[in-house]
Write a structure and sequence with these properties.
Elements: E1 7-8, E2 17-18, H1 24-38, H2 41-46, H3 49-61, H4 66-70, E3 79-82, E4 97-100, H5 102-112
Antiparallel strand pairs: 1-2, 3-4
């Protein structure tokens, strides 16, 4: 499969070429700014250091996207999805988590009418 063409970083003044929106140097800063300015404090607490540890361990145990695997494709998972949202009473327990690739995760939320 061909790679995406590289384009300049979206950060003003940066000329680094990247296949994503931001280069590696600015990606962390934009996520940090988003979490600080756009997310409420309760959400930041739910997705802190403990969640990153749980997410990493879950992806190590479940390295393939579960939706793609059901369709007969082998795609690496890079996102952990909560079956029952934390805001709706869900937990970080492994029976409430699902390993997905970015494409399947976006498709799932788009079909539910979330974030779009």
């Amino acid at each position: 499969m061909p790679y995406k063409p590289r384009k300049p970083c979206a950060m003003r003044g940066c000329r680094e070429l990247t296949p994503d929106r931001y280069c590696e140097a600015h990606k962390k800063q934009t996520v940090k700014d988003y979490n600080k300015n756009n997310r409420d404090k309760a959400t930041n607490k739910r997705y802190g250091r403990k969640w990153r540890s749980i997410r990493g361990a879950f992806l190590t145990r479940n390295p393939l996207c579960e939706m793609c695997k059901g369709a007969g494709k082998l795609t690496p998972a890079d996102t952990v999805h909560h079956l029952v949202r934390l805001a709706d009473g869900g937990t970080h327990d492994s029976d409430n988590l699902q390993a997905l690739c970015h494409e399947c995760h976006s498709r799932l939320h788009a079909s539910e009418g979330d974030y779009f």
